[in-house]
Every structure is written in structure tokens, then in C-alpha cells.
Amino acid sequence: MTTPSFLRPLLLAVALSAAVAGCATTGPRSTSVVAPYSDKTELTGRLTINFSRDGKKESMTGKYDWQQDKENVNVSLTSPLGQMIAVIKVTPHSATLTQGDKAPPQTAPNVDALTQKALGWTLPVSGLRYWLQGYATDSDGKPFTASPANDTVITRDGWKLEYVDWQDEKAAVPKPKLIYATRLALGQAVDDMNIRIFIDAPDR
């Protein structure tokens, strides 16, 4: 199944920020905070976007390959059938989007400007660099560190993050497995959006 062209930027924006079902665990909740933040990390997983567009409910699913170091982020995004949708490269000086259909690359000074250019409104895409590892800045501008016992926050950008499941919540330093990100009234083109980000277990 081919991803509709008008939906591709939505997947791209989420991948740039950054990441379906999962059963909530039962029993005692660990109080351990998430693993320490790392500038350099590689993650894979899948994401599902549910949103309203002109009053109509839409849904889209994709797979991502996320690589970051202290200064750069590279993201490859594919359809569920393995079709390349896009490659995104973010450096301290620019952000570039190359779509799988060989359309000319789009470039902007930063990742937020790139989503504005691609979508017509700005998403806080730079946040996923931190959200995927369990870190955020809350609505009061204070640092937030997730844990199985403290798993919800409203970010400074107005997103509600819920850390729904963990790779191993009993670990000394648990890592996120499933994140819900919800935002209402993103702009005229999209009324609301719910993103479910699955993070694959790291290779052992």
C-alpha cells in the first residue's frame, strides 16, 4: 500500500521530533527514574499517528530508524511494507528532507523551520531527541525525568506525554518502550493529533 503524499509530511514531522498497542503492567510500580540521557543513541521502532483533518479522522503507521549524536540526527522512515518514505538529516546549521519518491530535497535552517515549510505549521519536532529517552521540559520550564511511577507530563510546547510501557520497569534504570504524545489544535490543517511511539528493545 502506497502512503498518500499528503500524509507523508505528518510521518516525517513526527520522525523529526524523533516515536501499537501495549498492555499496562500490573502490580507495584518501580520508582527508578529512566536511564541517563545519552547524546549518542540509535533506536528503531514504529509509530502510529491518529489525527483529525477537516473534521475527518485519519490514521497512518510507519517504521523509523533513529540515529543521533551530540550535534546531528539522522532518521529513515519507511512504510509498514518497507517502502522508503523519507530520509531526514539534521545538523547544527540545517535540516534536510529527502522523500522516497525522488522529489527534490527540502532544506531549512533548522528542524522546526523544515516542518513549517513541509506542513504549513510548526511542530515541536526537536523534542523527540529527548522524549524518546524519557526527558522533557514541562509547562513551567522545569526539567522532567520520566519513571514508571512518574510517567506523565505536559511539555512547554503543549504536548501531553504519557510513558505507557517500559522495556523493563523493574530495571535499575528502565528505558521507555511505548510513548503516547497528544496535542489539540495544532493548526488549521490538523485539528488534533495523537502519536503512539513504539521503541524496540535494544540488542543484547
Automatic annotation (TrEMBL):
The keyword Signal applies. It comes from the Bacteria. InterPro entries: LolA/LolB/LppX (IPR029046), OM_lipoprot_LolB (IPR004565). The keyword Endoplasmic reticulum does not apply. It is found in: Cell outer membrane. Residues 1-21 form the signal peptide. It is a lipid-anchor. Keywords: Cell outer membrane, Chaperone, Lipoprotein, Membrane, Palmitate, Protein transport, Signal, Transport. Belongs to the LolB family. Monomer. This is Outer-membrane lipoprotein LolB.
